[in-house]
Design a protein that fits this description.
148 residues; mainly alpha
């Protein structure tokens, strides 16, 4: 696959994921609560102590963990900017999500805590991927240590 197609595919997948996040945030409080209750009922069979609040916070973290991974892959394909730009973009998307979409949706509110949690999810994914890349590069070039 050519670099051009990889770039387009990467942007398309990332765009669809952002759309997914925004679409979920645009649901009313009633719709969101009903969905959470259904998922919570299923997950409590595996994790009996799981609460609605913990489930919702895990959803925030997970959505943005995936977004962080997608943005990192786009960054690697485009080879432009810095990792800080990737994290800034994820934080910007979280701000739009919370302060514009959720804050203007019936029964929902935009929360600073959720923006921080979203950004932490993206940062966790980027951090893990950077560590894996560094490890791969060290193995490919040797780690520089001499054996005695």
């Amino acid at each position: 696959m050519s670099v051009r197609w990889k770039r387009l595919l990467g942007l398309a997948v990332t765009g669809l994921w952002v759309w997914f996040i925004f679409a979920r945030s645009a649901r009313t409080a009633e719709e969101s609560s009903a969905e959470s209750a259904m998922i919570l009922e299923l997950l409590r069979k595996l994790i009996p102590f799981l609460t609605d609040t913990v489930l919702r916070k895990l959803a925030h973290f997970t959505e943005y963990f995936i977004l962080g991974g997608l943005l990192y892959m786009d960054w690697r394909i485009w080879n432009r900017g810095s990792v800080l730009a990737v994290l800034s973009l994820a934080a910007g998307i979280a701000c739009v999500d919370e302060l514009i979409i959720q804050a203007n949706t019936a029964g929902r509110s935009g929360e600073l805590w959720d923006i921080l949690l979203d950004t932490a999810g993206a940062a966790a994914a980027v951090g893990i991927l950077l560590l894996l890349r560094r490890r791969k590069e060290r193995r490919a070039h040797g780690d520089g240590r001499k054996e005695i």
